């Protein structure tokens, strides 16, 4: 299809683009454009030297080259010129969606891109890799917080757009704005911030949008995350507009899902990524429109795409990598093909395939704190691949020439020796109900002496298969120990991620040490030191076979990319038991397992024998029946229960207004603002309080932890999984975003559930966090494997309805368990997006440390499987004081008063439990 460009206001009459008609007769070019990958002598090429490094920049750029119209027929027909792989330099503007782009480019290009922070390389290094090493074929500039007018937000990107005129560049969102700004366009506030919401797109048919429909009801809907825009009236003549929104309105995801005009391609893309049918499409190829009415359009529509008239530089304001964007992958495919044709047109010589296959992703230097010096590293996990039914590796790298991430991340053994662990276990079929269920088993086996030093990962809500297993135990055998970690004084910048670890062993000996590299490094050392035989746990249906059970506090974000903590936690920043003797309950089949981990060839079965006898002689206690919470919803909130809030209603609402200002200015898309409620409770019977809480508010990821030496008990009724890694290497996250109270009647309850389901605000919240978790998993998962089996499901609990999504991916083989935690902690549902910038802003707004709240409770098995929750709906009892944390996601659609009410709602169940118990 061909289109006419006839807008004199944009001075486009002299330009010719492939597939576009122009008034000029058969335009020919005498010379081919000199590309960056060919260093032959040419009068049109200037060579400059910066600090001894050569940089090649073209001095003559031909109009129309970016669409490939000037290429000779012989070059186009030469099959040997086709590039099997396209190598992308992906500039990360500290965004939380960059690795979604990484995943897409890995699939589309056949080889993963190299990810570099916008301030990681000097200009000399950039020139070295682009023009001396010829390491990249194109550049993609990621989204990010802030504005291209701020040097700290945009880093080296503006200089790339100014000086790398002979390299194809695609800017996304912030990168799009940077392309306009660097050439003189103005960046202004949009009429309203739009984050996690969808718009229909109209385009001019340029090659970036090849085979993508255009216009209203065409099926081309995209997700937008921005509050700043390029002022279309300020576009310089060298920047050509190529796409707009079709109207000023936006759409929610479910509104788009239920529409009858979504295209087949869009349906196919979202089905493949989400994993279930959501659309009833009717394909419409769309129509084009002329720029002759661009002035009228620019007044009422928002600019969504631009390109440079004489350089291969493009920008799109929307997010093609989002789970809900239609035709997003096609845009990346089009950019790949444009890059290939552009390189062929410049007599580009094919590179050595081995170098292409082995480029290591430098992004691990930020993700894992691994220093990266010298040339690009190599890794077997960045081999080129093509996607058929699943990812397929095409080759094997010579280990002598490649350095894997796992070798870079190896640590000395924590204990000075390898521990050979042996697992013994026994199974009792259909026994749990006969013994009165999990509650009775825990109380009879571990409830004596105030249940000191005990744990219970408690799947107290197992309906709809939300959870299946419970793990419980106490101070066990010779391998038992307790680890307590406290971050050092945060005022000392040099020690910001280090801290003090205390280890109490089963024999009563306590050792203390300073961990310069922090707790997660130490946990990794511990897990790496275990040797085991997989045959020991063959036949077990769960993934915990012994190891560490405890929690990671929110302040450990400083070990996961955050620069500092503003407040020091009153509770330890991490506490774990090493569980060597424990009980497992399979709620699906009612089976009971008793498990014992020992070292070496030890065959002591004393604990197993003893617990077996106790179980066989255990008498069932009467099981209390839960009240139907839909008819009697919680009416007691924290403020009525004698809890004192860290912030008053007025202060919290004022903070919400501040969040909205940050969002308006582009500093964040979503901010999860929280606060704490506290109450003196003295020497309360903590276990009885937890039993009361689990009865009134059962949850699939509930937990009881009693660290007696720390005078610390945790009563958790969390409905949210943070992250799980199973024995097959599959990672799963289940973020919750969107909460509403249960109704007093069945009719009211159903109406409230539907209100949540179709709320544009709550859908936007959930979508933003789903894209964020896809990004976090994308850092450590095989390219092409991250998917969303369930999107925006509404789940009902005792006191609230919540909107839950599920994200999964296949872990890369050279990534370990702790690497996965570093990539995703803290859970994005408790921070907002982009994560790092949002945490910085939240630290400036919140008045105390979150402590255990917003962290994670769960296990690390000795074979490196793990399962961790998000600490919400939780009572933390420390030194005679009970605290409850709560908050909510602030987005552009938020109402400050409603946000305060939602925060109070979330404290209802735990606060009511305290009041009723006392």
Automatic annotation (TrEMBL):
Its EC number is 2.6.1.85. It is an enzyme of class 2 (transferase). Pfam families: Anth_synt_I_N, Chorismate_bind, GATase. Residues 450-594 form the Anthranilate synthase component I N-terminal domain. Pathway: Cofactor biosynthesis; tetrahydrofolate biosynthesis; 4-aminobenzoate from chorismate: step 1/2. PANTHER family: AMINOBENZOATE/ANTHRANILATE SYNTHASE, AMINODEOXYCHORISMATE SYNTHASE. This is aminodeoxychorismate synthase. It comes from Manihot esculenta.
């Amino acid at each position: 299809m061909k289109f006419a460009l006839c807008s004199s206001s944009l001075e486009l009459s002299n330009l010719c683009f492939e597939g576009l008609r122009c008034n000029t007769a058969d335009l020919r070019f005498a010379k081919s454009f000199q590309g960056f990958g060919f260093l032959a002598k040419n009068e049109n090429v200037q060579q400059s030297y910066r600090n001894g490094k050569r940089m090649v920049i073209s001095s003559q750029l031909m109009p129309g080259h970016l669409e490939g119209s000037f290429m000779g027929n012989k070059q186009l027909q030469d099959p040997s010129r086709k590039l099997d792989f396209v190598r992308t330099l992906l500039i990360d503007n500290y965004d939380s969606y960059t690795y979604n782009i990484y995943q897409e480019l890995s699939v589309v290009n056949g080889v993963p891109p190299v990810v570099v922070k916008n301030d990681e390389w000097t200009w000399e290094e950039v020139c070295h890799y682009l023009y001396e090493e010829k390491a990249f074929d194109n550049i993609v500039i990621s989204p990010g917080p802030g504005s291209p007018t701020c040097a700290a937000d945009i880093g080296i990107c503006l200089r790339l757009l100014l000086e790398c005129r002979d390299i194809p560049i695609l800017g996304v969102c912030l990168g799009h704005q940077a392309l306009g700004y660097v050439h003189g366009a103005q960046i202004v506030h949009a009429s309203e911030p739009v984050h996690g919401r969808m718009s229909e797109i109209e385009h001019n048919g340029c090659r970036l949008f090849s085979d993508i429909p255009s216009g209203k009801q065409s099926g081309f809907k995209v997700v937008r995350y921005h509050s700043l825009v390029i002022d279309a009236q300020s576009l310089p003549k060298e920047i050509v507009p190529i796409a707009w929104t079709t109207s000023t309105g936006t759409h929610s995801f479910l509104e788009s899902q239920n529409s009858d005009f979504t295209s087949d391609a869009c349906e196919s893309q979202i089905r493949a990524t989400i994993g279930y049918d959501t659309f009833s499409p009717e394909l419409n190829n769309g129509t084009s429109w002329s720029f002759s009415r661009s002035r009228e359009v620019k007044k009422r529509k928002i600019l969504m795409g631009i390109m440079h008239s004489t350089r291969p530089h493009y920008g799109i304001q929307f997010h093609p990598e989002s789970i809900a964007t239609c035709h997003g992958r096609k845009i990346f495919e089009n950019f790949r093909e444009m890059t290939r044709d552009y390189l062929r047109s410049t007599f580009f010589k094919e590179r050595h395939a081995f170098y292409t296959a082995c480029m290591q992703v430098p992004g691990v230097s930020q993700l894992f704190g691994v220093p990266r010096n010298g040339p690009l590293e190599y890794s077997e996990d960045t081999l080129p691949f093509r996607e058929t039914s699943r990812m397929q590796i095409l080759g094997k790298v010579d280990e002598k020439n490649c350095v894997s991430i796992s070798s870079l991340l190896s640590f000395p053994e924590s204990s000075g020796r390898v521990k050979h662990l042996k697992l013994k276990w026994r199974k009792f079929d259909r026994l749990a109900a006969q013994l009165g269920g999990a509650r009775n088993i825990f109380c009879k086996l571990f409830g004596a002496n105030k249940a000191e030093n005990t744990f219970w990962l408690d799947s107290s809500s197992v309906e709809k298969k939300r959870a299946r297993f419970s793990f419980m135990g106490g101070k066990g055998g010779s391998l038992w120990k307790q680890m307590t970690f406290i971050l050092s004084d945060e005022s000392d910048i040099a020690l910001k991620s280090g801290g003090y670890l205390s280890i109490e062993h089963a024999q009563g000996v306590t050792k203390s040490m300073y961990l310069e590299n922090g707790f997660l490094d130490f946990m990794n050392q511990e897990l790496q030191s275990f040797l085991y035989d997989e045959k020991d746990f063959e036949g077990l249906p769960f993934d915990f076979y012994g190891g560490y059970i405890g929690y990671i506090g929110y302040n450990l974000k400083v070990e996961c990319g955050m620069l500092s903590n503003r407040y020091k936690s009153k509770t330890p920043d991490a506490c774990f038991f090493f569980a060597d003797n424990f009980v497992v309950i399979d709620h699906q089949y009612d089976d009971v397992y008793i498990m014992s981990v020992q070292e070496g060839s030890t065959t002591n079965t004393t604990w197993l024998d003893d617990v077996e006898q106790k179980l066989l002689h255990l008498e069932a206690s009467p099981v209390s029946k839960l009240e139907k919470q839909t008819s009697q919803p919680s009416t007691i909130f924290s403020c009525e229960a004698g809890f004192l809030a860290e912030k008053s209603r007025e202060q919290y609402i004022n903070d919400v207004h501040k969040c909205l200002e940050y969002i308006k200015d582009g500093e964040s898309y979503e901010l999860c603002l929280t606060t704490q409620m506290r109450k003196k409770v003295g020497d309360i019977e903590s276990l009885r309080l937890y039993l009361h809480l689990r009865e009134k508010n059962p949850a699939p990821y509930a937990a009881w932890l009693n660290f007696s030496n720390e005078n610390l008990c945790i009563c958790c009724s969390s409905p949210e999984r943070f992250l799980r890694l199973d024995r097959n290497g599959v990672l799963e996250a289940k973020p919750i975003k969107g909460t509403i109270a249960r109704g007093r009647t069945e009719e009211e309850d159903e109406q409230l559930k539907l209100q949540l389901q179709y709320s544009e605000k709550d859908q936007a919240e959930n979508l933003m966090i789903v894209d964020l978790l896809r990004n976090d998993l994308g850092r450590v998962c095989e390219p092409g494997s991250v998917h969303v089996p369930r999107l925006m499901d509404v789940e009902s609990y005792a006191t609230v309805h919540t909107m839950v999504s599920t994200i999964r991916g296949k872990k890369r083989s050279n990534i370990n368990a702790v690497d996965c935690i570093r990539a995703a902690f803290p859970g994005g549902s408790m921070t907002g997006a982009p994560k790092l910038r949002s945490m910085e802003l939240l630290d400036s707004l919140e008045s105390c440390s979150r402590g255990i709240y917003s962290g994670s409770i769960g296990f690390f098995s000795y074979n490196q499987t793990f399962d961790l929750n998000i600490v919400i709906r939780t009572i933390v009892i420390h030194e005679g004081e009970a605290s409850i944390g709560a908050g909510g996601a602030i987005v552009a659609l938020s109402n400050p008063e409603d946000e305060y009410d939602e925060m109070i709602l979330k404290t209802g169940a735990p606060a009511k439990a305290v009041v009723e118990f006392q």
